[in-house]
Amino acid sequence: MLTIGTYLQNRYEILEQIGVGGMSYVYRAMCHTLNRQVAIKVLKEEFASDEAFVEKFKMEAQAAARLSHPNIVNVYDVVDEGELHYIVMELIDGITLKNYIQKKGQLETREAIGISIQVAQGIEAAHAQHIIHRDIKPQNMIIAMDGTVKVADFGIARAVSAQTMNAQAVGSVHYISPEQAKGEFCDERSDIYSFGITMYEMVTGKVPFEGDNTVSVALAHLSEPIPAPSQSNPKVGLAMEEIILKCTRKRPEQRYQSITEVIADLRKALVNPDSDLMGLVSQDLSQTKTLSPGEVSRIQEGSRRLRRQTPESDFEEEPEEEIRENPADADQEETSRRRGARSHMRRPGPKTERDRENVNPQFQRIFTGILVVVAIILVAAVLFVGAQVIGLFGRGTSTTRENTVTEASSEPQAVTITDNQVFMPNLLGKTQDEAREELAEMSLTLSVSGEDYSENYEEGQVMGQDIPEGQAVERGSSVGVTISKGSDQVLLTEFNLPGMALSQAQQLLEEKGLTVTVNREYNDQIPSGQVIRFSPDEAKVGESVVLVVSQGPQVVEGKVPKLIGHTQEEAQALLTQVNLTAGEVRSEASQDVPAGQVISQDYLPDTMLAPGTAVGFTVSLGPAETAVQSENDGGRYYLGSIDTTCSLSNYIGPASQISSVRVAIRLKQRVDNVDLYTTLIPAHTVTGGQTIPVSISQIRGAYGVDTGEVEVVNAETNEVIQSYTISFFPVE
């Protein structure tokens, strides 16, 4: 793990850790060469000695570096430096799709389609380079502040090769394709399956399979059918549901064969979300549109009763795969069955000759009989309702209307409403004003019976109604509804709590309905009273959040504090706190450090000394031009020069090619019994036994002083590594 302030390649300064994965740490860093912030993914130390891991890491990085697309997180650099292996990537200011889903719950269909198209375009660019992501999931998708969606972390991605044939299953188990779960051959269609699961989560707010362990979830992906998204979210568009179900077919050959095909259908769905893209669901009979939800259920129940009345022995079971050999037939049958709530009847797909040969003749006769009976039931229901509309079954001057649906028993049951009654509409998902307006049109009034949190409905939407949809209700009645307060899940990562004052953070969290527990610890970097970190990352309303707050640096007797950057008075006070004393206080001109602040100190911070030890330090005099009262004798001044080299081999050690030291070059002159220091070359890092040039053609000295010392110093300790005497001469 890298520490804050570490420099990589003398270019990337580590600012903070922003994430951690199974194989690597991720840091925010500043690239000082290009003056931009980047993300750096560093392989964990425990894997650095594993050649297989290192090779995989390098291969994946090189594959990702070939990709350049607006919907892919760009890779800038791949570095293999001794035992340190890291990738420099584009830093995106935004939120992961996973967090976005957790925040919003179920996404509206068009929004989900818009996000999906962007993700699919990024995957398409990778597939064009023969790169499979192998870990498609919402956690690896970032929504930037401008709305751009980027696919991130090709850390599991591999260039398609012979190695893929025997590759072990990788990827997150909730999004894993069946072939990945079995450790079989994976190709672009494996990404399409995981992408389908991701789209499922967008429109439903959850993954299709949950389990006590990863094995149970993986087995579900292998054997259990994906539930229709409309079962969890009735508002999802038909076209989007069909796309999701086709992406998540168990057999790769039954899915979309390319991500380009998926994009084409997503664009069609964006134009008309409720269109039947696959031709799998028949059009509703126009006559049935007058039936209430209760009447529809009775028709379906009639069909189920008839099936139950037929002895099971009359059917000879055949394997499902033998009956559904044609993939298109399988798509038709499964999707139509799952969308029964959207369509009153299913149009059977064409059967192949093999299909006809494999179906048992007795089963065929019985099934045909069932279809005939069901058709009769439907026709009877339609005729009955139509007859009522035209008055065929009129009852004189009666004001009563009757809607009758025939059950499988052929005994009619009547649902009767009067002219003073209406069927209760579905108010779920509507705003309070929308629900009130709809009820008013039906001579009903709305009353708010309560509020509650909901993961499925946004704040202000109706999440429950006292009278169920389809029930007869008297005009003028009051309908009670429960209004959603939105999700009770609070995402703390959105509040930028680290560095915030305790009082401010506590007030913010309590306003969100959370309780706050405060723990304190010493910290050398975070000022006292500010938040260091928090846990957990998200919490429900009413739960407790732990804030760890800084107490400032820990005071330990004899432990040298950091004096640099403080004034002389502050430095002396800090030394007194730890039972140390101020030693020699030196002065030095500085172009970089304001006058009065400490430039260097005799002992490094955190060094343990005996109580009472004197610690000397150097205070800045400010820029050299203002540090000394220079004279002007007809425009004359003093000038010197130096041209030599300084070897650091004896200082650092010639055999240590990875050791480094920060050095600076300065001029030292004695002026009015005060040592005056002027920086000639600012501090910079030198590695190994390197020879550095000490060559400056013009060095302007203090007026009237004809000698001086050019010193090569350790910038961190102020130790003089090498000193050179030079002479100064007056110049007109």
From TrEMBL:
Its EC number is 2.7.11.1. The chain crosses the membrane at residues 366-393. The keyword Kinase applies. It holds the Pfam family PASTA. Keywords: ATP-binding, Kinase, Membrane, Nucleotide-binding, Serine/threonine-protein kinase, Transferase, Transmembrane, Transmembrane helix. ATP binds at residue 41. SUPFAM superfamilies: Penicillin-binding protein 2x (pbp-2x), c-terminal domain, Protein kinase-like (PK-like). It comes from the Bacteria. CDD domains: PASTA_pknB, STKc_PknB_like. Coiled coil: none annotated. It catalyses: L-seryl-[protein] + ATP = O-phospho-L-seryl-[protein] + ADP + H(+); L-threonyl-[protein] + ATP = O-phospho-L-threonyl-[protein] + ADP + H(+). Residues 418-485, 486-551, 552-621 form the PASTA domain. Residues 12-270 form the Protein kinase domain. It is an enzyme of class 2 (transferase). GO terms for molecular function: ATP binding; protein serine/threonine kinase activity. Residues 313-333 have a biased composition (Acidic residues). Residues 338-349 have a biased composition (Basic residues). Residues 286-357 are annotated as: Disordered. PANTHER family: MITOGEN-ACTIVATED PROTEIN KINASE KINASE KINASE 20-RELATED (PTHR43289), SERINE_THREONINE-PROTEIN KINASE YBDM-RELATED (PTHR43289:SF34). This is non-specific serine/threonine protein kinase.
